Amino acid sequence: MARIIDGPKMNLIGENVAKIRKKLKMSQQKLSDRLELYAVYICRGSISRIEDRSRTVTDIELYAIAKVLNTDINELFDKEMINY
Questions:
Q1: pTM of full prediction above 0.85
Q2: What is the CATH classification number for the domain harbouring 12?
C-alpha cells in the first residue's frame, strides 16, 4: 500500500489553512510572522507550498498553525482524506 506522501499531495491541511487564513483576512506573510511567536519558522514561500499541498507539515508546525489561526487542529484536516 502506498503511503499518503508518495503521491502529489504532501499534507492533508493545505486547502483548509488557506481557507481559514483568508477568512481571517490574514496574508501568508502575516501567518509566517505570527508563527515565529511560537518559535516556528516557516517563510512565506513555504506557507504557499503548504497551502498548495506540495510541502509536508511537522506536528509542531501543525500545532502552531492551529494556534495562530485560532482554530481546532481537527478543523485543518481535509475531511474526505481522513475518512478514506
A1: yes
A2: 1.10.260.40
